[in-house]
Amino acid sequence: MVVQHLAQNLNIISKTTHQHTRQQRLLSIELKELVSQFYQRDDITYQLPGKRDYVTVTDDNGESMTLQKRILLYNIRETYQLFVNEYSNKNVDLSLTSFNELRPVNILIHSYMPHRSCLCIYHENVNLLIKPLSKHISCDGLNLLQEFTSMLGCDEQEEKCMFSCCHLC
Both 112 and 122 in a single domain? Predict the structure, then answer.
């Protein structure tokens, strides 16, 4: 930079008047709402039950409102991949960075989960068992908990399938 500045002052090279500006792509309001609604879903985030687990935010009108804190069940990359897979037919063009920046303030990543929240053996052991299992069995669905649970039954939203009471699976 110093050499270039000296060369421009001595008229050895011409002074550049053109600054390269990166054209920023604006995201539509509908896309922002779609991402926000995706983050608020119960299969993506867990709502903290505590009375003090809330965030106060101001809306566009300047009024403050309280929102209950929610914890992501997956990391950002996995959540982004779930979003892309679900909305691939709508031609949603969104980068991982933009997806993370559109995360609402009441949605916290997994490391912010308080210690008083349940991580008992029944709820957390599944994650601990899937990781070593995926090293020994070559299967595409073993790296994500969401994909693993979808492989267990015919419909992961149906209670009978998840409790092994379904006659089809």
Answer: no
